Amino acid sequence: MLNVPAQAFPAPSSQQRVAASGRAKVPLKPGRSLMDWIRLTKSGKDLTGLKGRLIEVTEDELAKHNRKEDCWICIRGFVYNVTPYMEYHPGGEEELMKAAGADGTDLFDQVHRWVNYESMLKQCLVGRMAVKPAAAPKEISSALSEEKKQLNGLLPEKVAVAASAKDLTPSYDWFQTEASVTVVIYAKKKDLNAESVIVDCQDKRFRAELLVEDLSYLLQLDLMHAVQEDVAVNIAGKVGKVEIALKKKGNIHWNVLGHPLESHNTVIRCTDRGLFYRRCKLVSKAEVTHDTRLLCLMLPKSTHLQVPTGHHVYLKQLIAGTEVVKPYTPVLPSLPLDSKEPAQQDGACLYLMVKMYSSGLFTQALDHLQIGDSISVSNPEGNFKKSQVQTSEDLFLLAAGTGFTPMVKLLSFTLAEVSCLRAVKLIFFNKTEDDILWRDQLEQLALKDERFEVEFVLSQPTKDWVGKQGKISSALLSEFVKRSRKDSKVLICICGPAPFTEQGVQYLKDLGYSQEEIYTFTA
Ligand code: FAD
Ligand code: NAP
User: Fold this and answer.
1) Distance from the CA of 501 to the center of ligand 2, in angstroms?
2) Residue 162 pLDDT more than 90?
3) 380-401 pLDDT, tens per residue?
4) Is residue 253 over pLDDT 90?
């Protein structure tokens, strides 16, 4: 599996070091990196002890394999011998042992449901559970129906669902003209925006996901006929209606919209919906600093996707035959210097600011992408809600290194759209001057907008540096994070290496800020 950077299992104890993902990590021994694991899985070594056989595992049998030297774990009905993986697990053996001899699905999902464990642990597969544990996503409402023709198309026939869920269940219809087919989703909820809908149409496969609060409504069909590449999405947010216009290839009358695919017309929690990836083309790569690049990835014309402020996407690449996945936080092409206007996003591209580590598994592969190459990009994820900042009078942003990335859209949004905002202060920690991302732009923004202030703090400055130096500390924060007036409503956002973030939160709490006043960006 592994897709990933981070560990595949439950969060470790607080004494352990916390990883880039925000989860604790333990130092791995030399020769136990992700790349070393990939090599071992390709070596042909028998990693299950079953000489290639797959067996049916009973619950009693599973329970017997509960020791470090003989540890089986069940994930979604499949049983893996994770003993060979113990030393390679970034979250440590202790974390894996929490699910030893048992069903680890929930623990796994709590940490990294996006980790592709099937790929990473495939050589450790022992077999299936004889009685499959219930671990399928919980469907809140299924309106999957036999097709019911009405007007020109389909309306979902509701199956029995809880009354409250049923009330919330969106529905859809479709109509056609000679040249187009339009799918209409009725959200049963007002205040939709461009971020509420994600549409992909690849060949005849049509997928539309509506995100309303923490629920996801999915349409997924094999269309009756192929359509042209460009898709137009019109969101009538005030009335809770979404229109997705597809262009026909030729003037053919469609009798039905298409054939339902898996999970079509269902409502489940967003966190239970698997991540969907589409291929995006690298269209430009610009230098930001000596080791950081601004990548522009073009979405397919048939995709409608906007990443909400403070949310990240996952990039997926095949590295040495294994799918590796890492999170990145989209930024804007530049900081909006006219901060009274919301930054315009044309929606066609995603901009990522990525630090390329010389020993980084994923970033080295990313840095080798050529203009025109493609890479898989997931749907967005994240917990940040704009409403958290909408009533703030003072916003403090604490960023370290690429922890600056979520601050970009946040700055743009608050300066343009939060009317009660009095002050936004960014304190930006870096090693050296050469590491400061978008320094000129930040200084220009501070000159243009009197509400915005930026302070750079260097941990490894040259002797010419006249600014602040050091690391995040209580003294620094007490000077920096000050309410503009007594009792003003404050939000403090923190992002950087996980230990930086953890320390920051502790110092802020010690200074009397409440949990509600602090938001940490993590995976
Ligand atoms: P690895 O192979 O995992 O590590 C190799 C070496 O690189 C390490 O030994 C270490 O020396 C160095 N290194 C790797 N990762 C880190 C790290 N996180 N901190 C310090 N040193 C490290 N990164 C961006 O550049 N831009 C973003 O927008 C961005 N957004 C993120 C959003 C989230 C939610 C999270 C959790 C992380 C984000 N990251 C971002 C970090 C990113 O996901 C990867 O961790 C990073 O690109 C390194 O991956 P790698 O495979 O190249 O390094
Ligand atoms: P970096 O250059 O290594 O460090 C930036 C600054 O932070 C430096 O001044 C550094 O000081 C300081 N620092 C590092 N570790 C610290 C610690 N343990 N305690 C206090 N200060 C510390 O940072 P980077 O390589 O760009 O890494 C950025 C991090 O942000 C990554 O871990 C990435 O995963 C994370 N990130 C998270 C998200 C998210 O969760 N949404 C988004 C983007 C990035 P020193 O000189 O002492 O090292």
Assistant:
1) 9
2) no
3) 999 999 989 988 999 999 999 9
4) yes
**34 CA → ligand 1 middle, Å:** 13
According to the model, what pLDDT value does residue 19 have? 36
**Ligand 1 atom nearest to 363, measured from its CA:** 52
Q: Ligand 2 centroid vs 500 CA: distance in angstroms?
A: 7
- How confident is the model at residue 485, as a pLDDT? 87
Single pTM value for the model: 0.80
Distances (CA, A) of 44 to 38, 147, 212: 11, 49, 47
Residue nearest to ligand 2 atom 3, measured at CA:
401
CA 362 to centroid of ligand 1, rounded, Å: 8
Ligand 1 neighbours, Cβ below 6 Å, are 5, 20-21, 312, 326-329, 352-355, 357, 359-363, 402, 405, 497, 523
Q: Which is the closest atom of ligand 2 to the Cα of 404? A: 43
Residue 136's CB: how many other CB atoms inside 10 A? 12
pLDDT in tens, 14-51: 333 333 344 456 778 888 888 888 888 888 888 988 87
> Distance from CA of residue 374 to its chain's centroid?
19
Is the CA virtual torsion 38, 39, 45, 49 positive or negative? negative
221 to each of 149, 159, 208, 265, 310, how far by Cα in Å?
A: 16, 19, 9, 9, 31
Other Cβ atoms closer than 10 A to 9: 30
- For all residues of the chain together, what is the average pLDDT? 86
Cα end-to-end span (Å), the chain:
18
Q: Give, for ligand 2, the residue of 292, 361, 402, 462 to mutate: max count of ligand atoms closer than 8 Å to Cβ.
A: 402
Does residue 3 surpass a pLDDT of 60?
Answer: no
Closest CA to ligand 2's atom 9: 430
- Once rounded to an integer, what is the mean pLDDT over residues 81-98? 89
CA of 6 to the centre of ligand 1 (A): 10
Q: In this structure, are residues 11 and 111 in contact, taking their beta carbons and an 8 Å threshold?
A: yes
SS3 182: strand
The answer to whether the CB of 403 is under 6 A from ligand 2 is yes
Q: How far apart are CA 348 and CA 302, in angstroms?
A: 10
- In one-letter notation, the amino acid at residue 291 is D
Pairing of strands 78-81, 70-75: antiparallel
pLDDT at 91: 80
What is the phi/psi pair of residue 371, to 5°? -55, 130
pLDDT at residue number 352:
98
Residue 167: count other Cβ atoms within 10 Å of its Cβ.
10
Instruction: Give the pLDDT of residue 16.
Output: 34
Q: Which atom of ligand 1 is nearest to the CA of 34?
A: 2
* CB-based contact 302:231 (threshold 8 Å): yes
